[in-house]
């Protein structure tokens, strides 16, 4: 059974490999506009880890096969949503920088169970071309809420899961 643990500085090289593999998966699926120009950077991952917000998803053998950042809101880019609205204004957590090995199955479900054990109100965004993530979000009961814009002006589709 997969497990989640807080990522450590010793995990950063492996996390960057996971991110590179995830970027390749996105490109193979036609998503060429997300995670460009070196994002997420090593510096960003190191900040996640140093702040206790970076998490590794481990396979049955204890090997990291996934990574995500789990942060308390508010997320500044979520303050304004267009062509829709958030499900609620309650405190929430955000999931960013989800990456996994191509051969690893169940990483998203494991990550989600972990996040829901700590917050019942989750927000996430993804690129319009990230069909894989959109399918995962729909499969796991996230609601499409509208469009947000990143600090650099890039559009993202915004989702929320408000579990009771």
Report on this model:
The chain has 164 residues and is α+β, with helices and mostly antiparallel strands. It has 4 helices and 7 strands; from the N terminus they run E-H-H-E-E-E-H-E-H-E-E. The protein has helices at residues 12-28, 42-50, 107-116, 131-139, and strands at 3-6, 54-58, 64-72, 93-100, 121-126, 143-149, 155-162. Strands 1-2-3-4-5-7-6 form a 7-stranded mixed β-sheet. Strand 2 (54-58) and strand 3 (64-72) form a beta hairpin. Helix 1 (12-28) packs across helix 2. The longest helix is centred in the N-terminal third of the chain and has 17 residues, at 12-28. The mean pLDDT is 96.
The number of helices is: 4
Biggest β-sheet: count, sense, barrel?
7 strands, mixed
Shape: globular
Taking the alpha carbons of the first and last residues, their distance comes to 25 Å
Mean pLDDT: 96
| SSE class | alpha+beta
Low-confidence parts lasting 5 or more residues at pLDDT below 50? none
Level of helix content? Answer: 25-40%
Order of helices and strands: EHHEEEHEHEE
Major β-sheet strand ordering: 1-2-3-4-5-7-6
What is the radius of gyration? Answer: 15 Å
**Binned strand content:** 25-35%
> How many beta-strand elements?
7
